[in-house]
Amino acid sequence: MKKIMAKSAKPAPKTTPSRPAPQPAPPPVDLARNRQPSNWLTYAYVALLLFIGFSLCRYVFDPKVALVGDNTDYFLLGKALASGDGYVNIADVNKAPHHHFPPGYPLLIAGLMKLGGTSTNAVKALNGAFLLASIVLLFGQFRRLSGNVHLAFVGGLFVLVNLHVLDYTTIEMSEMSFLFFSLLALFFFQKIDFQKPAFRDPGLYAFVATLAFSYHIRNVALALLAGAGLVLLYRRRWAHLALAVGGFALLCLPWYLRNRSLGTDARVSQLGMVNPLRPELGHLNGVGDWLSRIWENKQRYLTREIPSSVFSFNPVDYQAPVNGLEWILGLSLLALLVFGFYKFKTDRLLLAGYALATLGILIIYPTVWTGVRLMFHLIPFLIFASLVGVWEGAKLLLDRANVRNAAFVNVALPMLLVLGVFLYTGDIKQRHLYARFGDYEAGYKNYFEAARWASENTPPDAVMACRKQSLFNLFSNRYVAGYAFTDDQRKLLDDLKGHRVTHLVLDALGFSSTPRYLYPLVTAHPDKFEIVLRLQAPAAPDGSPQPETYVCRFRDDLGWQGAYQSGKPSGQGEYRYPDGRKLTGTFPKARPDSLTGTGTLTDATGKVLLAGRWQDGQFVGQ
Predict the structure, then answer these.
(1) How far apart are the first and last CA of the chain?
(2) pLDDT classification of 266: cutoffs 50, 70, 90
(3) Does residue 75 carry a pLDDT above 90?
(4) Mean of the pLDDT values across residues 414-431?
(5) Angle in degrees, CA 328, 333, 339, rounded to 5
(6) How do 568-576 and 529-535 pair as beta strands?
(7) Cα–Cα distance measured from residue 620 to residue 607, given in angstroms and rounded to the nearest whole number
(8) Is it the case that residue 195 has pLDDT exceeding 70?
(9) Of 278, 255, 250, 273, nearest to 97 (Cα)?
(10) Amino acid 264: pLDDT
(11) DSSP notation for 458-474
(12) Strands 608-615 and 618-621
């Protein structure tokens, strides 16, 4: 019976298993929380950062013109481009081509002016917009680097309350625009699809284009090229590397050729100087001088600039020697930053190369170029690396203490770091109070008063020699010129004549060049410099008198006309007085109060009045 049943049983028909329907790719996983991030939380954090950033920009907004000088240079260059004059110094009587600042930021200002934003406050508002756009990009970078959306928000918040960041939203400087475009270049580099051929990858082309524009804002964009190049070398992406470097060089070539046709890039020529503010000190001499500069810069960045950028304070006195506490703080922070960079989830090689290349450029700069401005673009990443270092270090300690609650470690712990923000609130309030109620100090008040006087009392073609030339032009609408930083008075006078100077401003701004070069020149040639305006500053709080501000009319046809020795009037020549008299002869001392030698005094008609020996400006006999 069993056999019959077995024979009658038929085998089951064979079936081909069907393929499962394709499923959409899962959304990205939050590495820190090990679960899918919530889109609404991301949008909420970004919206909150934008709201806080906008509120802070309004809170610290200062309608006064900043006193840094470069800001008005940028403004006037933008004005020149917008008016169709080209990339020239429109405050210069000759409208000489400009080759000191790259044209990227002035081009942005020119675009703003074409849209109707012709005031300095409009340019400040543009910088605020660049900050808000940058914070969106930074939030994405921070989330990518840490894998934690909450820590990314905290990092963005720390960037927004950083005083250096807020300061550069209130002045017309290039830092904010460079931060945005360099972050955009970084974003495009991270979007490169290495599975595609290099010449077919739009991400690579976008990276090269934005990097080149960043370079035309600030030359330190070379550091980002170095960081990206390091990644491409490590990955052996030779075609990508060749296209990136070649494309960048091609886009930057016109600016290089233009500057070369004008002589040289002003900043490059200043690198070898001991002090660009005092050219008479000469250039660095040999390897020893360069090594000394590198050590001094490295020491200063480690103990002052980097701590200042992360902890949001300004060094008190750059002239004071570095003390032990500064070394401890600097080295401790360096260790934390290295740990933070090491703990980044991705892009460690890219960002480490970017940071190291930046510092490699900065340590060869002249030591008088101090402050965090030159490393401003690194501040957000240094802040976030320090936060990552603290967070990861706390996680290690909690793990050893058997505290592994995911919600606490990955949500509460990052949010606890927000408490550090309150350390900056007092300084932000001080910025607000100065913006609303602060005023210029007495020296600058008189300086601007002198500029307004010039606008009303000098002809439109007057040329004013002064410090902070673009600032003076902004308030006076008169041509301006610098002056040679030299003790040689003959060279200084020739320089004034070469710039067609009609007036000289003796300021009380605190620059050493005024008492070092201008006061000796004016006192040695009083008849060449007629005082037409004198402004007395109020006494200092301790009752001591403040330096006065003068405007002098330059009359090169008067005073000493003759030989100079060691840069001082001395030898054969004639002294011309304002009333037409002339004293002709040979005078070892040719200053009017010390004229000593043998000569003949004639009146305006040529009649001889006195002839013989002179002593300290007085006739002593034949």
Answers:
(1) 163
(2) low
(3) yes
(4) 84
(5) 130
(6) unpaired
(7) 19
(8) yes
(9) 255
(10) 64
(11) S-TT-EEE-SSHHHHHH
(12) antiparallel
CA 213 vs CA 136, 221, 295, 387: distances in Å: 20, 9, 32, 31
Q: How far is CA 452 from CA 416, 537, 546, in A?
A: 53, 16, 21
Residue 464 and residue 205: Cα distance in Å, rounded? 47
Stretch among 16-30, 349-363, 454-468, 596-610 having the lowest mean pLDDT: 16-30
Pick from 555, 547, 489, 545: nearest CA to 520: 489
Radius of gyration from C-alpha coordinates of the chain: 33
- Hey, what are 281's tokens? 């000190």
Helix ranges, 343-378 (H):
348-362
Give CA 619 to chain center in angstroms.
57
| Model pLDDT, residue 267 | 66
For residue 9, is pLDDT > 60?
no
Q: Would you mind telling me the total number of residues written for the chain in this entry?
A: 622
Confidence of residue 10 (pLDDT cuts 50, 70, 90): very low
How far apart are alpha carbons 69 and 600 in whole angstroms? 48
Q: What is the mean pLDDT of the chain?
A: 88
CA atoms within 13 A on the CB side of 447: 23
Q: What's the pLDDT tens digit per position in 380-403?
A: 999 999 999 999 999 999 988 888
Percent of the chain with pLDDT over 70: 91
Q: What is the pLDDT of residue 281?
A: 79
Rounded to whole angstroms, the Cα distance separating 231 from 348 reads 10
pTM (2 d.p.): 0.85
Pick from 597, 542, 593, 591: which is nearest to 567 by CA?
591
Those residues whose C-beta lies under 8 Å from the C-beta of residue 232, and which sit 6 or more positions away, are 238, 240, 241, 244
Whole-angstrom distance, CA of residue 258 vs CA of residue 18:
68
Q: What is the pLDDT of residue 439?
A: 85
- Count of CB atoms situated within 10 Å of the CB of 206: 17
Helix/strand/coil (H/E/C) assignment for every residue in 183-222: HHHHHHHHCCCCCCCHHHCHHHHHHHHHHHHHHCCCHHHH
- Per-residue pLDDT, 3: 45
- DSSP strand pairing (596-602 vs 549-554): unpaired
What span, in angstroms and rounded, lies between the C-alpha atoms of 444 and 474?
13
**Mode of pairing for the β-strands spanning 463-465 and 479-481:** parallel
Which residue type occupies 510?
Answer: G
* Banded pLDDT at 114 (limits 50, 70, 90): very high
Instruction: Give every CB contact of residue 607 below 8 A, 6+ residues apart in sequence.
Output: none
Q: Which amino acid is at 618?
A: Q
pLDDT at residue number 19: 45
Q: What is the DSSP track for 278-322?
A: -GGG-B--HHHHHHHHHHHHHHHIIIIIHHHHHHT---S-TTSPP
Give me the residues paired with residue 575 across strands: 560, 583
**605: helix, coil or strand?**
coil
The closest of 448, 435, 436 to 537, measured between CA atoms, is 448
Decide if 340 contacts 387 (C-beta within 8 A). Answer: yes
Element spanning 587, H or E: strand 582-589
Q: With contact defined as beta carbons under 8 Å apart, do 517 and 311 qualify?
A: no
Q: Are the beta carbons of 163 and 434 closer than 8 angstroms?
A: no
Tokens describing residue 461:
């073609």
- At 44, the amino acid letter reads A
Extract the runs of DSSP E, i.e. beta strands, from 456-567.
463-465, 479-481, 503-506, 529-535, 549-554, 559-565
Query: What is the pairing mode between strands 582-589 and 568-576?
Result: antiparallel
7, 12, 14, 15 alpha-carbon torsion, rounded to 10°: 170
